[in-house]
Write a structure and sequence with these properties.
The complex is a heterotetramer of chains A (330), B (343), C (366) and D (561). Chain B has 343 residues and is mainly alpha-helical. Helix content of chain B is 63%, strand content 1%. The chains are: A mainly alpha (330), B mainly alpha (343), C alpha/beta (366), D alpha+beta (561). Chains in contact: A-B, A-C, A-D, B-C, B-D. Chain A: Keywords: Cell membrane, Membrane, Transmembrane, Transmembrane helix, Transport.
């Protein structure tokens, strides 16, 4: 088990290295000139060269890449002109825009994604699995058709359309809720909750659809398994058959996808939701940094998000080992 | 979604016994002789009312897109012909009249700001959506099939490498990457020197970019299918007859893969249309004045208090388009893979 | 051929109600391609302490019949008609709640593939204990002790330890033993074993059959064994029912059916089975062709497309007229559905070796 | 001025104003400003919330070059000179300095005397050395992004690399603790207006944190930083060592200023408009744009808290003289452009008045003239006639705009108008954040380029030489501001001549004539003189329309109790 974990983490590290490399070289091919942006108006060529040097952009890509990797492991110091800025390991670089270590910024934004992602995930998992189970049990009946219909709606509707619609209805039209956004829980729990209701709902509508479909089909598959017939043949009540024997087996494939979804959600992949509701999360940070050509932040956000997805993969495998006695982690 | 569930129909009684005396496998106990799988699938689609309606709706959308020039000729307003008389310059070029300027002249009203005819924007925008959706799905399916075939058939290090690449592709936070990659690819392909962004090239860039992140799903599916197929007798038979690899891959395996390929294509189209619209909504997709629904929605989101029609019309239409394509995709899957029936 | 016109066998209903009495059981599944008549008018009886073997190829309706006995078609799309009387209670009309109380307790079942029939995520012990607790108000501890006891009874070594194992940690034979332990945990009056040995090694098969027989003696249950292998039932069954295309084609005591099989299909089954005492060099003769579609059964005798002897019958009778289930002459309850005359059967079976049969086949088949 | 581009909204930047110019507010300007003069005496206490869609690019005073950042900086740092805007016109006054400075040697040497007793937040006194150090910082490549004037004008500035390696700039002298002298390499008659920009302030060497000074600005103003989380929130509290008696411009009415960043601008507008709860004490610095502008400008209920601030800026279309060489064609374009639809694209009448000159009213040197169509909708007959004289060419022209809806709508309006005189326009939208770095690069030349420009201080000297000195094209190949590529020897000579003038009045007249000359060349189509509109909650008082910064000035802000 322990050795398995080590091996999985090593494999994850390799994948992260590959992603890092690809991302690094792709983003340094971005059609922009961060030095020029930093230089401001009326920038003379000599001043531009100095700023390039100061940002480390005058070195070859390979050198920059090596520096970056080194920074990840041992940290690095920035600025040879003024007061030096220390960026502790794992150093993802220093934002061209704000001169703050990227990781600091990411960690500042992280609570928003955590709140948004986890809150929505809990809701759509419970609702989706519930709805999918009902649909599978009532296969072909009205409840099933309603659930399938709802799922199709969620799969087909655009997340920003739903988001804007919710904003329009609940904030502008009926003024039931205050403007959405993220308030730290520690600051104002009520505000935290109120500000996240609509973003959560939006994510839930979209993800609920997937989970309903998934649970339903997984459940139907399980229903056809021999052991389900055995359970009925034992004389177990229908509810026990479905909820204990059925759900226990049907939930297993869902765990994989749920883990990946949670990983990518809290890693900042709810870009559109963040953008519609003005939540300052990692997704919005990424979009803004692309627009500002803030390479270290772009690199940092994508790596941060990828890390969560890769880690989620490992966690899912471990959980799988706990959930499915047939899987041996060795 | 990474798993393709294939629930077995519960109605058919207990599992079939292996019958040593009987050659081959018997499909489902109710095989109807003399019908090709394609014809059976077509029959199932036709018999499924929902899928038939979805197919009709999809064909209608395609027809509208193809006939866009004709339709706009009928109304007299093209997608980039502003009607300055329909907007009020004193209110920030807000449309005159109610419901966003709906009138006999402008069936769906006009865009605030530009005075473009919304109907024309919509029918031309549909072209964009369908073009990007279908082209990227074609591309990603083609790449995915080749990669999946290679990984599944050759196995060994080819499989390891390709599977690893698929894992990495699937691990990428895709939307983030597509957002970031769009300017990169655009820049790499851009040949004109004026430094701006070519709006038609952008369409191609979007197709490429979306396909880059979509092929891994198809590849995974095809790989799994190949792995199970290559153990089957007819491949062994072909191998024994010392058929070439290419022959086995493309003549023996590929024909048996058309069902999963078609399914993944059918499900990729609405997914890609959604992605394209989302990118345009975030401002990194189609470049105006090329009409696009996502871009219209993005624009409309700023006016949704004052001019809700501007938001609702493209929003609902985009929903209907994606819904129709999703239903069609489901229908195709059900028809080709009866075990995955909706019920 | 509509359901209503299917001829009813002239069964003799004995004066005292039998323990199990199945009358004209029909199980039909509506599908997109048409109505699948998996079981179409099956009747049989069974007394306590006795064993019935239901034999047939896959798709002959034998497994669907067994599920009907457990009432497992309730709540599905299946259309079930006829009557199933068990200890004086009619099961088909019984509501699900009432049926549920019987399942596992009065009627229980052993399934074909113990690996898929046991839940992979629960321990063997807990699955057995669960079956006990459904019908008995006992504590978890008591149920677990009962599970250990049952495992011991079915011959699982170290049951105290193995009770905590998961099904995949058991070998095939042990799994089936566990399955049997589970089905017997409530001392059922009727035990249905659906291909209990098919998924097992040959050596293990015999052990399991022995176990079933021993336990039957111990518990005094009635047993229905469903199999495609006449060899399995020849040892253990008192009666044999041969099914083809959802219908009965031959029904009698084991001795009668094995010694004097009346239906060419039964002959085929017998000949496709190796005889222990037989000539080593003797070829096994599989029945040619495939089982029929249950949606469109062939007209006339549903076996006629595969029957080598239709030439022995008046031209066209086999393809046009469905043979009734008739009492075999000289027998009390041996029933068979074939147009062949007794003489013809005599001639075919008497002395006619396989070579002759082949010749006959050549003469008549094409 | 510079144009920094903000997330989704309009670009904008710093501005300073002109002393004496009458600001022609006219009928369209003049929102219901609740300036201090209007509303009795301010109450003390309370927290003012600032809601901006994005964080300040910089508030390190030497790096600030946006209107929002500069406006915020004025709460934190004191500059040598400053603007008193409580009167009907902005008035240049001494801020850190006792007066507006003394010019000598033909305006090449400027001397400022500092007030005694101005304190840093730790109680130590602000000295001339602090100011010298502050100005020197801007020369370091780490302290980038600020205006170019110091390095342009100070003797030796072209080779000086900042104070971090221990070197000082000898052209800044501090003969004593309270005197600072600047030696310039050319006469600059309005240098004391330059020194009202945030860069001309002190930084105590001991508290300089280099590139991270943005979040650690050391205060000598009425408020100081309590906490600052980039892109999230900045909290300012009272600076106890600030004294009203030493400051002619600012007041210290609030307990706290809380700036929050990152909400969508439309959401901010909506919040403040609905005026509920905490929004009552909030104000936004980012200008209202698009549809919000349309609806809010006309909303009578917002009248008392709607600030329409005329900016010393111009929104224009540059015609590339390298590519559109025929004067007749350029003149035809001047006539053909329909400014009514153009203004509609930017937000209608609330956005600004139709422009006919490059110098906005309010900028020193503004001269009122109109060389082309008197009807803002254009004069098609005249335009067609000019095209005919040019031989009826059917040119195709590229037009560079930002890829934001406003600009796309603007581009469409231009395209439609020019189509009527046979010119086909190809629209080239450019990523908004890279827009100016793209069009300012001489490698990228378009036939038509959109531009806007806000004066750094309201003087023609920060408009015309920057935008039309053709000799700069070669010097600054990557940040060329001459989007028209006008390189007219007459214009260049005139710029040099005016630069040497020390008589302000004479200078202003000459700039007015220069403006006219440029328009005779039909190098640019002036479109609109810009206004910036902001709103505040109903409990915010003391907001002054800062027509120099084009921001709601908060120096007298208070919360109504």
């Amino acid at each position: 088990m322990f050795r398995y974990l080590i091996r999985r983490l090593l494999a994850a590290a390799v994948i992260m290295l590959v992603i890092t490399t690809i991302t690094f070289f792709i983003f340094f091919a971005l059609p922009s000139n961060p030095a020029l942006l930093a230089c401001g108006k009326t920038c003379s060529p000599s001043r531009l060269a100095e700023i390039k040097h100061s940002l480390g952009l005058d070195q070859s890509y390979l050198t920059q890449y090596w520096e970056f990797l080194k920074g990840l492991v041992v940290g690095r110091d920035y600025g040879d002109q003024s007061v030096r800025i220390h960026c502790g390991a794992p150093c993802l670089g220093i934002s061209f825009q704000t001169d703050t270590p990227v990781l600091t910024t990411l960690l500042q934004d992280f609570p928003a994604d955590l709140s948004l992602g986890l809150g929505a995930a809990v809701a759509f998992l419970i609702l989706g699995v519930g709805l999918g189970t009902v649909a599978a049990v009532r296969r072909g009946r009205a409840a099933d058709k309603a659930a399938v219909g709802l799922a199709l709606f969620g799969v087909s509707v655009q997340i920003y359309f739903i988001g804007l619609l919710l904003l329009y209805l609940f904030v502008d039209k009926f003024q039931i809720l205050p403007t959405s956004g993220y308030t730290p829980f520690t600051e104002d729990p009520a505000g935290w909750f109120q500000g996240l209701i609509l973003p959560w709902s939006t994510l839930v509508i979209v993800y609920l659809a997937m989970y309903t479909r998934l649970t339903r089909s997984s459940m139907l598959e399980v229903f056809s398994e021999d052991y389900m017939r055995t359970a009925r043949a034992k004389g177990l009540p229908a509810a026990t058959v479905v909820l204990k024997h059925g759900l226990r087996a049907a939930i297993t494939p869902i765990i994989t996808i749920f883990g990946m979804d949670v990983g990518s959600l809290i890693g900042g992949s709810a870009v559109i939701t963040e953008s519609v509701f003005g939540i300052n999360g990692i997704g919005k940070l990424a979009v803004d940094s692309v627009q500002n050509s803030d390479l270290p932040v772009i690199l940092g956000t994508t790596l941060f998000a990828a890390t969560f997805v890769v880690l989620a993969n490992v966690v899912v495998d471990l959980v799988y080992g706990l959930v499915d006695p047939r899987v041996r982690l060795a | 979604m990474t798993t393709q569930h294939q629930p077995v129909d519960t109605g058919g009684g207990t599992a079939l016994l292996p019958e040593p005396s009987i050659q081959g496998s018997r499909p489902g106990g109710t095989a109807v002789a003399g019908r090709s799988p394609a014809r059976m699938a077509w029959r199932r689609i036709r018999r499924d009312k929902v899928t038939t309606v979805a197919l009709a709706a999809t064909l209608l959308f395609i027809a509208i897109a193809l006939l866009a020039p004709v339709l706009t000729a009928l109304t007299g307003w093209g997608p980039i012909t502003p009607d300055n008389k329909a907007i009020n310059p004193d209110t920030g070029n807000f449309p005159y009249g109610s419901l966003g300027g709906i009138s006999a002249k402008h069936l769906l009203g006009v865009e605030p700001g530009t005075g473009y005819d919304l109907f024309a924007r919509i029918v031309y925008g549909l072209r964009t959506s369908l073009y990007v959706g279908f082209a990227s799905a074609l591309l990603s399916t083609a790449v995915g099939v080749v990669a999946g075939l290679a990984a599944g058939y050759f196995g060994g290090w080819v499989d390891s490498l390709l599977s690893r690449i698929m894992d990495v592709m699937l691990a990428f936070p895709q939307l983030l990457f597509i957002i970031a990659l769009t300017p990169v690819i655009q820049n790499a392909l851009q040949t004109n020197s004026h430094g701006g962004t070519d709006e038609n090239l952008r369409l191609l860039v979007l197709v490429l970019n979306i396909a880059v992140f979509a092929w891994a799903y198809t590849a995974r599916l095809v790989r799994g299918q190949v792995l199970s197929l290559r153990e089957r007798e007819f491949v062994d038979a072909a191998r024994l007859m010392s058929a070439g690899r290419r022959h086995i891959l493309f003549r023996q395996l590929l024909p048996n893969l058309w069902a999963p390929i078609l399914i993944s294509f059918a499900l990729a189209v609405p997914q890609n249309i959604t992605t394209e619209a989302a990118l345009s909504y975030l401002g990194v997709g189609v470049i105006p004045p090329n009409p696009d629904w996502g871009a219209v929605l993005s624009d409309a989101s700023q006016f949704f208090l004052q001019d809700p029609m501007y938001l609702f019309v493209p929003g609902v239409l985009l929903f209907l388009l994606v819904l129709a394509l999703n239903l069609l995709g489901d229908g195709v899957r059900d028809a080709l893979d009866p075990r995955a029936r909706r019920g | 051929m509509s359901v209503s016109t299917s001829p009813q066998p002239a069964d003799v209903t004995p004066a005292p109600a039998p323990f199990l009495d199945v009358r004209d059981l029909r199980v039909h599944f509506p599908t997109e391609d048409g109505l699948v008549k998996s079981v179409d008018g099956v009747s049989f009886t069974l007394e306590k302490g006795r064993t019935l073997g239901i034999v047939g190829e896959s798709g002959s309706g034998k497994s669907v019949t067994s599920l009907a006995l457990l009432g497992l078609h309730k709540g599905t799309r299946a259309q079930v008609s006829g009557e199933i009387w068990l200890e004086g209670r009619e099961l088909i009309a019984l509501p699900e709640a009432g049926m549920r109380a019987l399942r596992g307790r009065t009627v229980s079942m052993i399934f074909q593939d113990p690996l898929s029939a046991l839940h992979p995520f629960f321990t063997v012990g807990s699955q057995i204990a669960e079956a006990y607790r459904v019908h008995h108000k006992v504590s978890k501890k008591e149920a677990k002790d009962r599970a250990v006891e049952m495992l011991k009874r079915v011959g699982i070594p170290q049951p105290e330890r193995r009770v905590r194992d998961y099904p995949h940690q058991f070998s095939g034979g042990m799994r089936q033993r566990a399955m049997i332990a589970m089905s017997l945990v409530c001392d059922p009056a009727l035990l249905i074993a659906d291909e209990p040995t098919t998924a097992l090694d040959v050596t293990v098969q015999a052990q399991i059959l022995d176990l079933i027989r021993d336990l039957q003696e111990e518990f005094g249950s009635a047993v229905v064994i469903i199999t495609h292998d006449l060899g399995v039932v020849s040892d253990i069954a008192d009666d044999i029912l041969v099914m083809y295309g959802g219908r009965r084609i031959e029904y009698g005591t084991t001795r009668e059916v094995l010694k004097q099989p009346q239906h060419p299909y039964t002959w085929g089954l017998l000949q496709s089975m190796p005889h222990l005492g037989g000539d080593v060099g003797q070829r096994l003769n599989p029945i040619p062709g495939t089982p029929p579609s249950l949606i469109n059964l062939p007209d006339g005798c549903s076996f006629h497309p595969r029957c080598a002897y239709k030439g022995w019958v008046t031209e066209g009778r086999c393809t046009a007229e469905r043979p009734e289930l008739r009492l075999v002459s000289g027998s009390e309850r041996h029933l068979a559905a074939c147009h062949l005359s007794d003489d013809a059967k005599q001639e075919i079976r008497g002395g006619a070796g396989p070579d002759d049969r082949d010749a006959a086949a050549a003469r008549t088949a094409r | 001025m510079t144009r920094t581009t903000r997330t989704t909204r309009r670009s904008r930047t710093v501005a300073l104003t002109a002393t004496a110019v009458v600001i022609a507010l006219g009928a369209t300007a003049c929102g219901g400003s609740s300036g201090n003069s209007a509303g009795g005496s301010p109450s003390k206490g309370g927290t003012l919330t600032i809601l901006d869609d994005a964080d300040f690019n910089h508030i390190d005073p030497q790096r600030t070059y946006t209107t929002e950042g500069s406006s915020m900086d004025y709460e934190l740092v004191r500059t040598l000179t400053g603007w008193d805007e409580t009167g009907s016109q902005p008035k240049l006054v001494g801020d850190l300095a006792t007066d507006t400075g003394t010019a000598s040697k033909g305006a090449t040497v400027w001397t400022f005397h500092l007030r005694h007793g101005v304190k840093w937040q730790d109680g130590s006194e602000v000295t001339a050395q602090d100011v010298k150090y502050g100005v020197e910082r801007a020369f370091s490549p780490d302290i980038n992004g600020g205006p170019p004037y110091a390095s342009q004008w100070l003797v030796g500035g072209d080779s000086y690399k900042g104070p971090y390696q221990g070197k000082q700039l000898s052209s800044i002298q501090t003969p004593d603790k309270y005197t600072i002298v600047f030696h310039l390499n050319q006469p600059v008659a309005d240098f004391n207006e330059t020194t009202a920009m945030t860069g001309w302030s002190g930084v105590p060497k001991a508290h300089d944190t280099g590139a991270t000074y943005d979040t650690h600005v050391w205060s000598d103003g009425p408020y100081m930083i309590k906490s600052y989380t980039k892109n999230k929130e900045m909290v300012l509290v009272r600076n106890k060592n600030w004294s009203q008696s030493s400051d002619p411009i600012r007041q210290q009415n609030l307990n706290e200023i809380d700036a929050k960043f990152g909400q969508d601008q439309a959401a901010i507008d909506q919040q403040i408009k609905s005026d509920g709860g905490s929004a009552q004490t909030a104000i936004t610095q980012t200008p209202i744009a698009g549809s919000d502008l349309t609806t809010m400008a006309g909303d009578p209920s917002l009248k008392s808290r709607y600030y329409k601030i005329p900016a010393p800026g111009i929104n224009y279309l540059a015609i590339n003289l390298n590519r559109v060489k025929d004067l007749k064609v350029r003149q035809a374009i001047e006539y053909a452009i329909d400014k009514t639809t153009v203004r509609g694209a930017f937000g209608g009448s609330a956005y600004g008045n139709y422009a006919t000159t490059m110098l906005a009213p309010g900028i020193d040197g503004h001269k009122d003239f109109n060389l082309y169509s008197s009807n803002p909708a254009g004069d098609l007959t005249k335009a067609k006639a000019l095209m005919k004289q040019a031989g009826n060419p059917k040119p195709t022209m590229s037009l560079a705009v930002e890829n934001i809806p406003t600009h796309e709508h603007f581009a469409d309006a231009v395209k439609t108008a020019l189509a009527k005189i046979g010119i086909t326009v190809n629209i080239t939208p450019i990523d908004k954040n890279n827009y100016f770095s793209t069009v300012d690069n001489v490698k990228n030349q378009y036939d038509l380029t959109w531009g806007d420009w806000i004066a750094d201080w309201p003087n023609a000297s920060t408009v015309l030489p920057t935008l039309f000195d053709g000799r700069q094209i070669k010097k600054l190949p990557q940040s060329n501001n001459d989007l028209a590529y006008l390189n007219d020897p007459k214009v260049n000579a005139q710029i040099d001549k005016i630069g040497k003038m020390t008589d302000i009045k004479q200078r202003n007249v000459a700039y007015g004539e220069l403006d006219e000359q440029i328009l005779k060349d039909a190098a640019v189509v002036p479109l609109m003189y810009m206004n910036f509109s902001e709103v505040s909650g109903s409990k915010v008082g003391g907001v002054i329309n800062d027509s120099i910064m084009a921001e709601p000035s908060l120096v007298h802000a208070y919360i109504k109790q």
